[in-house]
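Example: Nitrite reductase.
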Amino acid sequence: KEQREQSEKVYDTQCPYCSVQCHMQLIEQRSVTRKSYKTIGKNNPTSKGRLCIKGINAHQHALHKDRLTQPLRKIGEEFVPVSWEEALAFMADSITNIQKEDGHHGMSVYGSASITNEEAYLMGKFARVALKTKHIDYNGRLCMSAAASAASAVFGMDRGLTNALEEIPYAETIVLAGTNIAECQPTIMPYFEQAKENGALIVAIDPRETETSRIADLHMKIKPGTDAALANGLLKVIIEEGLVDPSFIEERVTGFKEVKEHIASLDEGEIVEKTGIPLKDIHRVARALGQKETGMIFTARGVEQQTDGSMAVRNFLNILVATGKIGKPSCGYGAITGQSNGQGAREHGQKADQLPGYRSIENDEHRTHMANVWGIEEKELPRKGVSVFEMIEKADRGEIAGMFLLCSNPVVSNPNARFVKQALKKLKFLVAVDLFKSETAQLADLILPASSYLEDEGTMTNLEGRVTLREASMKAPGEARHDWKIICDVARALGKGQYFSFHSAEDVFNELRVASSGGIADYYGMTYARLREKKGILWPCPSLEHEGTSRIFEHAFAHPEGRAKMSVVPNEPPVKKEKTCEDYPLYLTTGRIMAHYLTGVQTRKSPSLTARDFEPFLEIHPQTAQTYNLPDGTLARIESRRGSIIVRSKWTEKIRRDTVFVPFHWDEKQNVNRLVVDDLDPNCRMPGFKVSAVKVETL
Ligand code: SF4
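Written out as structure tokens, the predicted fold is:
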């Protein structure tokens, strides 16, 4: 025992998976014969020392033997290890050739929301300054774009949670729309459980009973894809029963009159029929939201990943604004971000239409600010590009010839995934930066080995907008490099080193601070020293004396006139959702389970997590299953208009009879995204992941 204690090493770190970013310690114990690891939670303002099964086992992927340790170049069908010099020279030649033949915009950059703020910032700068391409977007497009678009439209800005988590226990009404927090962000469930203990009415809106809906006082088992209509139903009761806040509307809101007129024209019976939610339940929730002093609404991908997801979220925000439940204690909105840096990665210029600090790439003043920070002419800055799925469509049409892909796995994560694979195969040059040879990396011409959460350095912004510093605990294995360094190395190889002369992540952060200064997501007042000392600061933090902002919109919204903007949301989406029919009689919806993260590139490497959930499943109501002669626990083929997959059936009465569910963490042959529609929300370009028509059959 004495010997083991003497060789114990403790690494302070943060979980790399979801947006809670739980703080934790990895304890390495060495004895004469073996080395072992365990992870324990570390106290911090967000997760308070709690961890879920993913965090506890995160080191299993980071320390996995399959980690990439050298650049790999594809020669024929084989990947061959090469030196960094050779890899960078190959990459520079390939990019130069593509841009000679296809122009600057022939290259594209596909970023990630699992990287640090510094890396997200560098990705945007790399695309616009080193490559001069407009084609940059990131995988958060598939995750946060609907909520971000809605919050920007109504509030004028988008921060995941408008209030710090600690306000949740004191909210009297809590609506959880399309969010399964208990499985996806389990360590923040106690905030909601505490609210319930305090007497709050908890409402879950979800076609399935989930671990989250178990705590709800009322579960609205909604028909998939009808959230916007349900919000209209709630708004109708609130407005027609006089449950709005007239002085708040008078002083701080525009557009109420138009919404009121529209709502008057809607028929409650139609809303009930469309959503499948009884009128008495709509009345109960609307009255709770309107009559109580405090209330909060949370949305996640269930509402957002639809072709009208941005409008559905906007309608939930209409409710908050009409009832004055925003900008006050325990009154507000939360988009429950999925990826670890889902918040920060969307603030610093990785989006097709944005520059750092949430600046617009089409706004002249914003363009000039960023051109000055980067030391280039404003006219050199490319204009707005297209979303990730549209970049893939362009690759399919030959309009994009090369792609620099960082920590993303689009072959599994995008809708209509078989098409995505075919499109990426048409690229003249694909480089993937990753920890493992993911399904997409296997298509690449070059794979560059990246650093894991244990080796990274940089800042992350959690779902509250709280920025924390992640410091490196270990050295990356073999020749793997920090992602920020890889981006700078590639820029140098392209002859753009003068714009990327950073020596550390902190150097990058100091430029990011200046870039964000005066913007919406203002980080100027944060330094590494302050972040270390304060254990995190919530943005905006515009000066070195500023303490950060835990609750936003207390005095004004972020639109120029300071008012929130309500707007009419129709019951019917502008892009028609796929309907069930004789050939495809069931709705398919998709989602996460607790043991896995995103496309499973990391969690499928963890023996403990795969032991718990080693394959996807088809969740189906027993009566529905019997209709199709599908026994419980047997292999079933699920087919949509785009393809089919085979997964094991799992009978449960927790799901609607017209709907089936499959989680999306598995690779090609079991990848439910092969089945999913690729129609996009016209406002934010989010694909409609959550509503597809399918049929099931026994094998
Ligand atoms: Fe915390 Fe999320 Fe990691 Fe679980 S997955 S430990 S909730 S950060």
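The first helix runs from residue 2 to 6.
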